[in-house]
Amino acid sequence: MCSFLVSETIQYYKSHGSDVYMLSLDASKAFDRVKYTKLFKLLIERSVFPLVIRFLLNVYIYSSATVKWNNCESEPFSISNGVKQGAIISAPLFAIYIDPLISKLKDAKEGYFIGNLCANAFAYADDIVLLSPSCTALRNLISICEVYAEDFEIRFNPDKCTLMIFSNLKNVNEYVNIMLCGSRIRNITNEKHLGHVFDTRFNHSLNLINIENVIRDMKVRTNTISVQFKPVSWKSKLLFSIVNVYLYTVVSYGDLMTLKLINYAPHGMSVLEGC
Fold it and tell me: Nearest to residue 63, comparing CAs of 98, 96, 94, 32?
């Protein structure tokens, strides 16, 4: 849904004559750079149940690893930072870790708005997208990211970060120069975000994301799940079918919240232009 939210925001403001600057941030080994002191402080501030925090402390503080090479194995060494790769809880923990950045970006009120909601940053795990109507507003958002990166020891890689500009002006990429951590960010015309291809050369809304490919991919995944859980009861299968119908409806037509925003958008959406 993250790509759909980005796409819908771009489509709306493009249809109203606004340029859109889409910056995709790449954090190098983001999961491995999570600081335990910062993470557990955030969990305490969120009033997470103390026993859960204590359990996570024991899991992470006293964890160790070894290096295996052919038939040789090193001595165990302690792991002092980072959430476990592939663990189910790692993504939610990283989302909590990155939440202060998203909150600061929203509080800056630079960029686009959906009603009273600031829609300048979208994040799915370590994939972060910034949307802005101007270079000035985008540079202000980047400054917030740089301060956060220094405080939380997250390293953004300018060589892998990309900038896409949705504009009716020709050769606009030649005149825009956006810097991150002292390095220039590459200007590109198309990019794959969470499996969906965005292309600045096709401004029609149907070309931003191919819905048919998304539905086809979803059907393959749901069929795979249904085969794996074939022995379950008919009630569970019925519930699974209902969920499938709802997901297909959301992908094809949008959920209730999306429909409400669409109905509200003509009266509430506005652009906060950079000065």
Answer: 32
